[in-house]
Design goal:
homotetramer, alpha/beta, 7-stranded mixed β-sheet, 13 helices, alanine-glyoxylate transaminase activity (chains A, B, C, D), Aminotrans_V_dom (chains A, B, C, D)
């Protein structure tokens, strides 16, 4: 049943799915239950409240949908928009590209704003579009908070500021798949209308839950949005919320208990501490990359991502060889370069339930692989740079003080 | 984390989600993996071949979609049909009703053929519609193989016979959610074009996989079907099948390994033996109901379901009280009566990885509950009737002979 | 890895090892930990306090030893007695016999008081021995609270009464392996000096912990007892208790967490409710046996055991055939007759985390097996008798009211 | 239930209990079974054969005892020796000291040969004792293969050579607790009479199995050995081996299946490859220690241990502070210095199911801790030294080539 066994623990450093902590594995190790008996609604009620905390919203309405991030995207779009609606969408890497592809296939009029891969969303262009859209033809802004393919984090507060400045009513739809629970995200403060994430990312669960949160304005929009949806229709959820049974169709019992355990861990650590931990992991990784003499795919510090780092390899090296070798020799999983950056970057995911020594093990591995493929890295250099920073910044584990 | 603990094992006799066998729980007790490394495609390749066996198809193309049965329905419809298409659909209980609701919301022209709840699909009416449809305006027949709300199994061979007799090209779309892997189902032999099931039913897994199988004719239809779909679009799967990476978006690693374990158990027992076991469980349940002096909601033997039995309670009793009491006093979960039969029937699910002594424990519980709620049942009568049959029919466990 | 797979859940009705509840399986599903870091002592401290509750002692000292019941016996004897010491020991079945064998091999002077198998300890003989032992040559009374081979529960309060009446200082050593946590046991009130149980019995854990509790008098005796012991020496434990590190050698991390979960379940249900549940299960079983026209191996009601029932089969039937058939055809595990009652009785274990419907499933199975082997049982008769009693006596599950 | 949660994975680098691989956790995630039904003996039979392979014996008789290493010691001694027997035993660290303490408490006449801690057994003294023991008063040589407290591996081949040279019949009893399955060990070739290990060491299981293997000569000795033993008596096992039921008392079902899984992993990797992997891990650790400018407690290369490295800290540093800090800040568990080397060394366990990147993460952690406590380490230096060696020596994972 394990097709490719290697001794020791697998070092999982793709930007999702990520490592599941033991308490979550334990919580999911259970038989099915009848989701119509009182226990499951009682649990769901708690979960819906708890989930709002990771979105930093009090007014939003969460939907925990048995789907993936791709389904969560579709849920966000089809519930709030109508075919033909003009939306501004930023193409900055493979995942924003895939979302845009979905938007186009769903028949929206997508106004694509493209950046060079490795750069953030062109908010200057957004501003000019918003400024000139007195007729409010733009119905929504679609933006990934963190582009997983390039390790670029966009500035959402600034997006909100632009919309506010021009009092533009466009909905703000945010893909937070590789940010929420890891990078500072504030749904209410930033006036995000729909935010979404997937369970297998910073929540550190298996794949299977698309978690979507809708602002009151988004809920209002859903009443008139004409896009066709059934499986993803929020109105079915809202109907069952009112009934107190919560589920229009069968949820995964295991993932619900797992989500409870995952959220409990996050709240025990403290969401802000979780975010600080990711900042440490991101910073340490970037310091290592620098020490290796390699470039971060992300071109400016303002866009640096604390959940994934795409590392540019020298032209004579094929980054996919690095990924293959990591797996074949070191039991290490790194992320491939995708599409435009295929062969040119490899990615280190550093999100979810992960600590500093795990990351240093990964970085030590990357160094050896770089040497394997002929890059003249000084072994230990990246680890040294990362450690120097970490040794000054890791806090004591609160429960152990 | 367990909100409503009761001593001993929960007796789960709803018609899904059903009991998960220990080997499957074990297989799923694992960390995430990188689904882009070679191990997951290798596993997927095996799964896609294995899954075809439970559909009894060699020519079909399976899709293992991270969704529920409701999503599988949507996948079946939107990939093969275009808005406005006329489809004949049979309303015989709550689940066929929900599917029809979906069909209507997806803008098909649904020609609903209704039966009294407790009766099977009106195939006589189908025949007359087919016979008169020389223009082939009917694009698809949608039918549940087994209606979970009433415990009615439809005769699919007969549907095929009707279509063949009139050489009608309508697609045959079958909801096999509560039949496949439990009730005899033959995709190729019966010329089913799309068949589907959910992981939490007879496969005895957690919820999370909608498994859909498409005939070559259905695949062909998908090339021209104009219904909008993105998440559920087969073409994305087919593209990744060709690439050998298989997944257009992230699958649940745990469910893939769980599916492998579940299928292995089914193949070890033998699919035909699994079906025979369900026949024993169904027969035993019906004999108990008869012994209690109660009526089966299913009105004729030809429709008897081997996966769920809906038991009609006397008019002075509210069946939902039975379900509540089962849970509160006996740690037993029975199915509620739904919609038209709410309060009038309770349901015993007897599908999945279940054996005869588990069922007899349930039946003994139902007897006590019937007495609790004032029905003058003779305690032991149902168990006696069921046992008399079972004692004559249970085979030795092959691995223990 | 599962050598003899059978569909559905295994019905485990041997009197140990018993079914492990899911929350306990979950708690044990974990990696190893460093038992010298602060977490494990903190857990151990809680466990030692909690364990005293199931012995109903406040003054006793518990030892959680990585061993089995056989090791726990040896611990009880060697820590409190010296070679050549006279001990009165009751032979009433296979397990008391094995303990006596151990006592003799450990070079004690064992004064064996034998009963017919199926009868309790001859306390009348004990009384006469105590009455005449003015010289206090008897150093200890060794008695099984519940003889697992015959389903006989001895009256410990009466033993204490006899000792008190003659102010006899003999230590009272009690094997509570198949009683503690299931049958009323009161260490302090009954003046028990050493009591012991095993994790795989009513605690519903895997095998691996021998739990021994010593009264202050037993601890005092351990200071002068000359029996050789090292692995089982209490003094090593006491030394580490004082140090606050608790463990003289490596404990099973998994079993410690499992024990915590198991005790939490028992305390949530309430120890007295657990005992009442076992009384219901025992009574129901005996009523079934009576209805089948069979005899309980236990000859008088005063000795009836609420954790195991040994059922006498008619002379023409070999009880081991019943046990074999149960396993081969019904996925049911019953206990064999042992030694003197081999072939003559089979045993139904009804202890641990078990509820009434599980038991009724087992009883229904036994009925079919009896028929299989040619005994003219009326199918349903035992279940009916048991149900009639249970339906009047099962309480609502408190967490679900 | 998790008293001292820290984010990310715990880095467990004590020399036992060690990390349990996921396939083993999965195998143990199961309900109890009846150990008297045919499945458990069938499994046991396989295990007894498989276990012999890790001892490299074909003629030995294995005993899988529900106990710890301390119990395994007692089993080895009491089954082969009689009180008063003269045994030569080597005191080279805390664990050999504890074994000697046990030997003395068991009333053997222990001829202790002491070494400075950090040195190996004084085989020169052994030789002189053997040479002069024409009367064969020495009944056994007791030696730890690997002293876990100091990281010293003794040369067992040489011990055999000495005994052979003088044709001395003393039994050779070997504690292989921290060597077997990790350091080259050859029971038959080296004429070891009793060898033993514990499940929580290189086998990478939970604590709970003491695995003892006896040569034909040891089995012969057990027939006349007069040491008192009951729980640990091999004769009970041998009796049940003959009966084919194998177990004199209840085994842990979970550990048996776990042992099967653990052995399967070892055989899949290849025992010799497992040993080579430990050699790599040991070498890498020693190179790091050297790079840090610290000393290995082990004084000569011939004694270097591939399973544990005791690192000597400078006099101004308390090594227990290092261990505390590792746990409190880095979620890393290191081994304390024990007894004579308390405060002076900390230990890095590098045994069991562990790979190189895990070790490098640990080494990076140790570097930061060294800096934390004021030792002027150059961050990255140890990792660099270890990596340089590893990058040249790690083989491809065979299943992934």
């Amino acid at each position: 049943m394990d097709y490719v066994y290697g001794p020791g623990r697998n070092h999982l450093f793709v930007p999702g799915p990520v490592n599941i902590p033991e308490p979550v594995l334990r919580a999911m190790n259970r038989n099915n239950e009848d989701y119509r008996s009182p226990a499951v609604p009682a649990l769901t009620k708690i979960l819906l409240e708890d989930v709002k905390k990771i979105f930093k919203t009090t007014s939003g309405t969460p939907f925990i949908i048995p789907t993936t991030g791709t389904g969560a995207w579709e849920s966000a779009l089809t519930n709030t928009l109508s075919p033909g609606d003009r939306i501004v969408s930023f193409l900055i890497g493979q995942f924003s590209l895939l979302w845009i592809d979905q938007q186009q296939r769903l028949n929206f009029n997508v106004d694509v704003v493209e950046s060079e891969w490795g750069q953030g969303a062109r908010l200057d262009i957004l501003e000019s579009k918003i400024a000139s859209d007195n007729a409010h033809t733009i119905k929504a802004i679609c933006i990934v908070h963190n582009e997983t393919a390039t390790g670029v984090t966009n500035n959402l507060a600034k997006v909100r500021k632009i919309l506010d400045e021009y009092q533009h009513p466009a909905l703000l739809l945010v893909d937070g798949v590789s940010s929420i629970c890891a990078i500072d995200f504030r749904m209410d403060e930033w006036g995000v209308d729909v935010a979404l994430t997937g369970s297998q990312k910073a929540l550190s669960l298996p794949t299977g839950l698309g978690i979507v949160c809708a602002s009151p304005k988004a809920i209002e929009a859903s009443k008139t949005a004409k896009s066709l949806r059934v499986f993803f229709d929020w109105s079915d959820y809202l109907k069952f919320y009112k009934l107190g049974t919560y589920w229009p169709y069968t949820p995964s019992i295991q993932l619900l208990y797992g989500l409870k355990a995952a959220l409990d861990l996050i709240f025990e650590e403290g969401l802000d501490n979780v975010i600080l931990r990711h900042k440490r992991l991101g910073t340490a990784t970037r310091l290592a990359v620098e020490a290796w003499g390699l470039k971060n795919c992300t071109q400016k510090e303002e866009w640096f991502s604390d959940t994934v780092t795409a590392v540019v390899v020298p032209p004579n090296i094929d980054s996919s060889e690095i990924v293959k070798r990591a797996w074949k020799r070191y039991n290490l999983n790194l992320g491939l370069g995708l599409n435009k950056v295929a062969g040119k970057v490899f990615r280190i995911g550093h999100l979810g339930n992960l600590n500093e020594l795990q990351l240093l093990g990964c970085l030590a591995g990357v160094e050896m692989i770089l040497k394997d493929v002929g890059y003249p890295v000084k072994l230990g250099s990246g680890v040294a740079a990362a450690s120097a920073y970490l040794q000054n910044n890791i806090p004591l584990i609160p429960s152990r003080i």
